[in-house]
Write a structure and sequence with these properties.
This protein has 332 residues and is mainly alpha-helical. The chain contains eleven helices and three strands, in the order αααααααββαβααα. Strands 1-2-3 form a three-stranded mixed beta sheet. A hairpin with a 2-residue loop joins strand 1 and strand 2. It comes from Belliella baltica (strain DSM 15883 / CIP 108006 / LMG 21964 / BA134). Pfam families: Cation_efflux, ZT_dimer. One of its GO terms (biological process) is intracellular zinc ion homeostasis. It is found in: Membrane.
């Protein structure tokens, strides 16, 4: 899996360098600040691809004494660096655009420049879709972030062509600076979103999508003897995932039975996700006076109260640090 990640990052790096040269050549031909905007963002693509290559290499390293959860979080850091670089490039472009607004300069060979930018946009779009797809498939934030960045670059490139075409037909050179400022604002916003996602991952913010997937799997595999699951936490470490939860089982189960049920839960989760999955299950005994009311185990020989309800397993109650009899009143 990590070989596939490295392969696509290397491809992205090589293509980014080629497209960078083409964009700067386009700027050399046209002298348009708006095209310089696109070229400068491509520098970010090259730097980001370099850092992403290292982050994927590091994230593939096995766990060690200093990193018991592995090195996967470096991918969040990589995405944050890429987002920060995008924002810096955006602010620099705004500065250059404002300068050219007051001191305009002549533009040349706009048709040739548009053709070159159109070619780079098409290549970035194809590569961006592929990286985004591979990132989701391999559960890699680094690949997905690079793919989104390239798709953003594609959009700005084609909008840029439209803007340069307007300049070409109207001869309003001042539009070059206005266009650059608009592009830069969009670039800064897309960079902010990457930084925001990076910080969320580094701070172990709840990943709603990962949590939703885990809840869906447990509901699908749910057994009658799994009386409830609570205090569940799902954490993402780059392409790896860590899940821990408390599983309530009948209090009279012997140790071997408890062990078997715990293994079933672990295997159900480990076999349904891509990437490395680490599952820790803590087994709790049921409390007859409180759990019987929603226990689904029809073969229970020590039931003290009849079943009144079935607790629906949702992210909202499975993540609470309490057994589900606290929620029983809401289901009656």
């Amino acid at each position: 899996m990590n070989n596939n990640k490295a392969k696509w990052i290397k491809i992205s790096f090589v293509i980014s360098i080629i497209l960078l040269l083409i964009k700067f050549y386009s700027y050399y031909l046209t002298n348009a600040t708006s095209i310089l905007t696109d070229a400068l963002e491509s520098i970010v693509n090259v730097v980001a691809a370099s850092f992403a290559s290292y982050s994927i290499y590091l994230s593939s390293q096995p766990k060690d004494d200093n990193h018991p959860y592995g090195h996967g979080k470096i991918e969040f850091f990589s995405a944050g660096i890429e987002g920060a670089l995008i924002m810096v490039a955006g602010f620099f472009i705004i500065y250059q655009a404002v300068y050219n607004f007051f001191i305009p300069h002549e533009l040349n060979m706009l048709l040739e420049g548009m053709a070159l930018i159109g070619f780079t946009g098409l290549v970035n779009g194809i590569l961006g879709l592929k990286l985004k797809s591979e990132g989701r498939k391999l559960n890699s934030l680094t690949l997905e972030a690079s793919g989104k960045h390239l798709l953003t670059d594609t959009i700005t490139s084609f909008v840029l062509i439209l803007g340069v075409a307007i300049i070409y037909f109207t001869d309003l050179i001042v539009l070059d600076s206005i266009l650059s400022i608009l592009f830069s604002s969009y670039i800064i916003y897309s960079g902010y979103l990457l930084v925001r996602k990076s910080v969320a991952g580094l701070m172990d913010e709840t990943n709603p999508e990962a949590l939703k997937e885990t809840v869906e799997i447990l509901n699908k595999e749910r057994k009658d003897c799994w009386i409830d699951i609570h205090n569940m936490r799902v954490q993402q470490y780059g392409g790896d995932r860590h899940i821990d939860l408390h599983l309530t089982l009948p209090y009279y189960y012997e140790l071997q039975q408890v062990h078997d049920e715990v293994e079933i839960v672990e295997e159900a989760l480990e076999n349904r996700f891509d990437g490395a999955i680490e599952v820790f299950v803590h087994a709790d005994p049921c409390i007859p006076e409180k759990c019987c009311h929603y226990c689904q185990l029809k073969t229970c020989q020590v039931r003290k109260f009849s079943q009144k309800s079935k607790i629906l397993w949702k992210a909202s109650n499975m993540t609470k640090n309490q057994k589900h009899y606290h929620d029983l009143a809401d289901n009656l």
